[in-house]
Design a protein that fits this description.
With about 200 residues, this protein is of the alpha/beta class. The chain has helices at about 5-10, 30-35, 80-85, 90-95, 100-110, 125-135, 150-155, 170-175, 185-200, and strands at about 20-25, 45-55, 60-70, 120, 145-150. A hairpin with a 5-residue loop joins strand 2 (about 45-55) and strand 3 (about 60-70).
């Protein structure tokens, strides 16, 4: 059985300095997850980028946040399924959404210099890179900067990776929900709260 000692579980995650935790919401349809987005015209286009910067020298305290909505190009009309899941409405995207390239530039500026690690929950980095390819843009982040927190969190919870989502983290570890589930910023904060709980104890 994997060790439950936080020092062991999280030693491969760079949590001793500034770090960014990010999360994405992307287009989805009824059954698209089960199909692996293989239906006609289905692509995981980013609709929201949310992130928090944490200070590892101060108990992983949040120092600044980032939240941007993005207009999908291939499927500009959000599905009713996606809206029910995320509470992101078409009018919000039409009025406040940015083109992906503009949102990516803002996110790159938020992350900062090349020494700042980027933590995520599972497949978000692959989705980000896919969106860069769909928009014919280079990804501004080297793949090695991304760190997946799922293996360490799964081991701490004694759960199989893939058997839970970010919205399950408060229930798994007993800390209060941090924000609205299935929003990119809310999920980024939930991941950050789990990391604080498991490494700092608060």
């Amino acid at each position: 059985m994997a060790s439950s000692d936080p020092a062991t579980l999280f030693r491969r995650l760079p949590l001793d300095g500034p770090v960014v935790v990010f999360d994405l919401e992307w287009t989805a349809w009824e059954g698209s997850r089960e199909r692996g987005w293989s239906g006609p015209g289905e692509e995981r286009e980013i609709v929201e980028i949310g992130a928090v910067r944490l200070d590892g020298a101060n108990g992983l305290a949040e120092t600044i946040s980032f939240d941007v909505f993005v207009r999908p190009a291939i499927n500009p009309i959000l599905s009713a399924y996606f809206t029910r899941l995320t509470n992101i409405h078409q009018t919000l995207i039409d009025n406040d959404g940015l083109a992906f390239g503009e949102a990516l530039t803002l996110f790159e500026a938020f992350v900062g210099g090349p020494d700042v690690p980027i933590l995520s929950f599972s497949q978000d980095p692959a989705v980000l890179r896919r969106n860069c390819a769909l928009n014919r843009l280079p990804c501004p982040f080297e793949e090695a900067r991304f760190r997946n927190v799922v293996p360490a969190i799964a081991a701490a919870a004694h759960r199989r990776a893939g058997s839970f989502s970010t919205s399950d983290l408060p229930g798994l570890f007993g800390f209060p929900p941090t924000d609205v589930a299935h929003s990119a910023l809310g999920d980024a904060r939930c991941i950050a709260a789990a990391l604080r709980y498991l490494t700092v104890g608060k």
